[in-house]
Amino acid sequence: MKALHGADFSAGLRAAIGGAFGYECFEAWTEKGRPHAIFGISEPVEGAAQIFMVGSEALVVDRREFMRLSKKIIGSWLPYTQSLYCWVDVRNLTHVRYLRHLGFHVEQIEPVFGALGLTFHKMVRMSSVTFAKEASHV
């Protein structure tokens, strides 16, 4: 992305993901102006919204601050949907631990997933907000 869009790769990522899949995208920066991560959330479909994050090496340096920020962001998204979910490569143990820390759990294991046919977890966090069901006209 950097080679294609310059130092501010977030614009290219927003155009690619936001335009193609309807995500609302955000970015987090260090105090020194280095990118922490680009992340986003889709419009809910049948009560579930998909989230994503692309992180940088700055997350390792400032991980406590990012964890606090992550909890606030996830908390702000939960009132608008029944659940949040994402797909995680099972080899990415750091990401799995990060999501568990944020209250996600493994709901499904997909042994052959994505372009390379690798094993992925579907990780889900349910909202504590109760949504009214549509009224029946029976």
Question: Characteristics of this structure?
Answer:
138 residues, alpha+beta, six-stranded mixed sheet, globular, disordered N terminus, disordered C terminus
Measured between the Cα atoms of the first and last residue, the distance is 53 Å
Radius of gyration, whole Å: 16 Å
Q: Order of helices and strands, N to C?
A: HHEEEHHEHEE
Any low-confidence stretches, pLDDT <50, length ≥5? Answer: 1-6, 132-138
Oligomer description: single chain
How do the strands line up in the largest sheet?
A: 1-2-3-4-6-5
Major sheet description: 6 strands, mixed
Judged by helices, strands and strand pairing, the structural class is alpha+beta
Query: How many individual β-strands?
Result: 6
Estimated share of beta-strand residues: 25-35%
Structure notes:
The protein is of the alpha+beta class. 33% of the residues lie in helices and 35% in strands. The chain is built from five helices and six strands. A six-stranded mixed beta sheet has the order 1-2-3-4-6-5, sandwiched between helices. Strand 5 and strand 6 (118-126) form a beta hairpin. It is globular and about 40 Å long.
